[in-house]
Design goal:
Layout lengths: L4 E8 L3 H14 L6 E8 L3 H10 L5 E7 H4 L34 E4 L3 E3 L3 H5 L8 E10 L19 E10 L1 H6 L2 H11 L8 H8 L5 E2 L6 E2 L9 E3 L14 H11 L13 H22 L1
Parallel strand pairs: 1-2, 1-4, 2-3, 6-8, 9-10
Antiparallel strand pairs: 4-7, 5-10, 6-7
Helix pairs in contact: 1-2, 1-8, 6-7
């Protein structure tokens, strides 16, 4: 199955503009012309926007496959209610191995707030070298960093254990299913909920501690970086669609070069009022759920 690239991402309707730029960047930079299936976990994206996304793809060998988020989470699944402001859909990536075709041997997960600068086939061909996942170190490069795993000592982890950013993961879905990784990560988070501040990234780093392949950092280049030749740009924190964006301006320019090739070509940065409200709402909802759980 390595002759076709399988990518998964997640988006809601608010971030559909980011999704448009991401998919267009995948298409434009794919100079190897490898066929690509792009699974989008659809968190209530409007049908007209899905049509705009699909119609922007100019190649027949790149397919966008929509997966309703309500079919991704198993019935009765109880997702952790951590203290983060991230939406529920951040946990959808834990179920990736169950939404792709069963014969797929490798999957690339990408956060929606990314754009490719280099051909994704170059990353795809990196391989996993016997590991179940591969990724790039986070801004917190080791677990003992204050943004890493707070209770690393209690978990028996060496303070120098490498810590990766879950926004980009190359993974083996067959081995993932065989080893029940989704259940292990969710159990880890629920058992350590007081220390979880980055949702599933916490659980993934605990479960895969010292058991992941480290990729070139240019494959997950954060927006506050000054690296001049990124392979992939990750717009963490403030997105380039907002006027409050204050990170690398060259990266923002690259984002809009891709966006201008979509039906959002005339989009101008706006105030992030809606984004701030979403984060506030997510935090309040999670506090309410935690309160009733304790009751």
């Amino acid at each position: 199955m390595d002759n076709k690239i399988t990518i998964v991402t997640t988006s809601d309707n608010h971030y559909v503009i980011l999704l448009a730029a991401l998919i267009k960047s995948i298409e434009v930079t794919n100079t190897s012309r490898m066929p690509i299936d792009i699974y989008v976990i659809d968190d209530n994206i409007h049908s007209i926007n899905k049509e705009r996304i699909t119609s922007a793809v100019q190649r027949d060998d790149i397919k966008v496959i929509w997966k309703d988020i309500n079919t991704v989470f198993e019935p009765g699944i109880k997702l952790p209610t951590d203290k983060s402001v991230f939406p529920k859909n951040t946990y959808a990536r834990l179920f990736i191995p169950y939404i792709v075709a069963p014969e797929v041997e490798k999957v690339l997960y990408l956060d929606v707030d990314m754009v490719l600068i280099r051909d994704v086939a170059d990353l795809w061909n990196e391989g996993l070298d016997g590991q179940m996942i591969a990724g790039v170190r986070d801004r917190a490069p080791i677990v003992s960093h204050w943004m890493g795993i707070i209770n690393y000592k209690e978990l028996g982890l060496d303070p120098e254990t490498k810590y990766y950013n879950a926004g980009l993961m190359l993974l083996n879905p067959i081995e993932w299913r065989k080893n029940n990784i989704t259940d292990k990560v969710l159990t880890c988070i629920n058992d350590n909920i007081a220390y979880t501040h980055y949702g599933d990234q916490y659980g993934l780093n605990v479960v895969f501690a010292n058991q992941w392949k480290e990729l070139d950092p240019r494959w997950n280049c954060f927006a506050d970086s000054t690296i001049e030749d990124p392979f992939l740009i990750h717009f963490i924190v403030t997105k380039p669609i907002y006027t409050s964006y204050s990170f690398n301006e060259e990266y923002k320019k690259r984002f809009y070069e891709f966006l201008k090739l979509t039906s959002w070509k005339d989009y101008k940065p706006q105030k992030d009022t809606v984004e701030s409200f979403k984060q506030f709402k997510n935090k309040v909802v999670r506090r309410i759920i935690r309160f009733f759980k304790k009751s």
